[in-house]
């Protein structure tokens, strides 16, 4: 473990993504005295919510992002200002999207913008997504591409790909499907090729001590707990009782490509 404070930059596609995948790790690092920086590519202005998509929703979601970041102990928050690319109803790239959609951006230009933040912060670590973008959202895939290139440009030594161990996830979804009717926008079959198989994961970070902060981070994204004709995925997660929540969300997973697959590290800054 590092004996002096270091800097970790977490790069996400939209506000609320940090809450779902990396909030526990961010809170842990901040509590240990490290500098935690949160960067989002877009304001998430095309997300489902009670209000219509657009600038107003984007402003609301950025306010929620700042609230979440404060709860997690982040020292800095930045938005690169790209347009939310949206998601096709069937998954994949939406046909109608803004002119500045992140998915259509020059990935090298976006990487240079992120690299400037990494250099300014003298970042020791950059967290992005796995190549599949987790569950396959186009903006998440672009985060992976842009993040990898930015780390090269800035010379950031540690690059962690935030992911989920899909092996227990598939088992849990199968069991849950027997007693719970999933929201229409949530297709559990998509997880068969999403995220990362357990034998490829290099970091399993125990964040049970920080699940209160993680839950509070989720709760900060009020706009994303409603909208559509049924409970949103975030709303469903927030209904999970405390003890079970700590069990389900008490581990966060990462892949570091320059260490052997399956290496069992327990801290972002741990050396092989």
Topology:
Elements: E1 7-12, H1 17-21, H2 23-31, E2 35-42, H3 55-72, E3 76-82, H4 107-121, E4 125-129, H5 138-154, E5 158-163, H6 166-176, E6 203-206, H7 211-220, H8 233-238, H9 242-249, E7 251-255
Parallel strand pairs: 1-2, 1-4, 2-3, 4-5
Antiparallel strand pairs: 5-7, 6-7
Defining key terms:
272 residues, alpha/beta, Rossmann fold, seven-stranded mixed beta sheet, 9 helices, 36% helix, hydrolase activity, acting on carbon-nitrogen (but not peptide) bonds, in linear amides, LmbE-like_dom_sf, LmbE family N-acetylglucosaminyl deacetylase
Describe this structure in words.
The chain has a single domain (7-255), classed as Rossmann fold (3-Layer(aba) Sandwich), CATH 3.40.50.10320. With 272 residues, it is α/β, with parallel strands linked by helices. It has helices at residues 17-21, 23-31, 55-72, 107-121, 138-154, 166-176, 211-220, 233-238, 242-249, and strands at 7-12, 35-42, 76-82, 125-129, 158-163, 203-206, 251-255. It is globular and about 50 Å long. It has a seven-stranded mixed sheet, with helices on both faces. It contains nine helices and seven strands. α5 (138-154) links the parallel β4 (125-129) and β5 (158-163). The mean pLDDT is 89. α3 runs antiparallel to α7 and α4 crosses α5. One of its GO terms (molecular function) is hydrolase activity, acting on carbon-nitrogen (but not peptide) bonds, in linear amides. This is LmbE family N-acetylglucosaminyl deacetylase. Pfam families: PIG-L.
